[in-house]
Amino acid sequence: MLVNSQAPGLLRGARFPGRYIQGAGAIARLGAEAKGFGGKAVVLLDRGIYDLLLDDVRAALEGHVSAEIVRHGGECSESQIALLSEKARQAGAELLIGAGGGKALDTAKAAARDLSLPVIILPTIAASDAPCSALAVIYNDDGSVAYDTFLPRNPDLVLVDTALIARAPARYLAAGIGDALATWYEAESCRRSGAFNCMRMPGVSLAYEIARYCRDTIFEHGAAALAECDADTAGPALERVVEANILLSGIGFESGGVAAAHAIHHGLCELEDVHHHLHGEKVAIGVLAGLKLHDADEEFERVRDFCRSVRLPIRLADIGIADVTEEKLATVARRACRPGEIIHNEPMPVTEDMVVKALRTLA
Ligand SMILES: [Zn+2]
């Protein structure tokens, strides 16, 4: 059967960060790379690593670009974005640099959009595939999610210092593996159903190949990468997994498309219980539940064993849902299956009952 994605004449697409550099000590290249985008930078530095990185960032920029360094307030909210934009305007910034975790990076990306400036992203953890994307999650000032905002372009440069990532807690790297785990399963669902990617079109064939490469990379190197991270070492496995978590998963999800795993993640986030768990940890549960939706029992076993080997949750209790009630499962399923939700990118119809049943097997 000729599915939608194979229909002749239909547009296909993919999107990418402008440039990507990765390696231990990469932060030292920041100034030399930044210079190509402008002479005056405003750097938004995550408050969590501000003291740790301030001197390194200053040293890396010195002699290349003049820079004002701003400490991030903690949220990626409209008020924080406006604050950064105002500071950058006053400083006459020609480029923005965001360094740290997801919220600081998203704040810098959104402000760069508002100012029409180039942006360099320097992630200090590899906990999700957000750094390369043209997407920012906007929060309310109280910490609840307000909305996702699509940006007109991906970051101009993503500079990943694996020595920094190796020094961060291994739990972040494991969560990034969870997010990367979803990439192929969701892209494959979209490929089969003909569902659209983040550009509202099917992906080019490369998108699905990148997603497959992402999956194969984490399966092969995930456990070894975590052992290297425990030893604070950017060894060969960690290098491969960081590339999968940030670059391959980033391109794979934006260009291949998203489906059940992230829809179930959104559903799980409706429960207060899961709020202390990381995005990728909840996504891993979404992948397992998604495989149950497909009745893919053999693949489920394989992925569950993999999750165990990379310290990812395999049961609802592992993400804080100790008391699994029918009411909670119904809440998750209702959110996951909303009309127009990405769960409907799956190649078969998915109902709330199916999601409840799948989640029950993880209780
Ligand atoms: Zn994700």
Describe the protein's topology.
Layout lengths: L19 E4 L6 H5 L5 E6 L4 H12 L4 E6 L6 H14 L3 E6 L1 H14 L3 E5 L11 E5 L5 E6 L6 E5 H6 L2 H24 L11 H26 L5 H21 L3 H9 L10 H15 L3 H13 L16 H11 L15 H9 L3
Parallel strand pairs: 1-8, 2-3, 2-4, 4-5, 5-8
Antiparallel strand pairs: 6-7
Helix pairs in contact: 3-4, 6-7, 6-8, 6-10, 7-8, 9-10, 9-12, 10-11, 10-13, 12-13
The site of zinc ion (ZN) has 6 residues, from α10.
Can you summarize this structure?
By secondary structure, this protein is of the alpha/beta class. The protein has 13 helices and eight strands.
What this model shows, in words?
- There is one protein chain.
- It is built from 13 helices and eight strands.
- The chain has 363 residues and is α/β, with parallel strands linked by helices.
- It folds into two domains: 20-167, 3-Layer(aba) Sandwich (Rossmann fold), CATH 3.40.50.1970; 170-360, Dehydroquinate synthase-like - alpha domain (Dehydroquinate synthase-like, alpha domain).
- The strands form two sheets. Strands 1-8-5-4-2-3 form a six-stranded parallel sheet, with helices on both faces.
- Bound molecules: zinc ion.
CATH class of the largest domain: Mainly Alpha
Report the CATH superfamily of the largest domain. Answer: Dehydroquinate synthase-like - alpha domain
Low-confidence stretches: none
Number of helices: 13
The pLDDT mean sits at 96
End-to-end separation in angstroms reads 38 Å
What name is given to the CATH topology of the largest domain?
Answer: Dehydroquinate synthase-like, alpha domain
The percent range for strand residues is: 5-15%
**Judging by the overall fold, what is the CATH architecture of the largest domain?**
Up-down Bundle
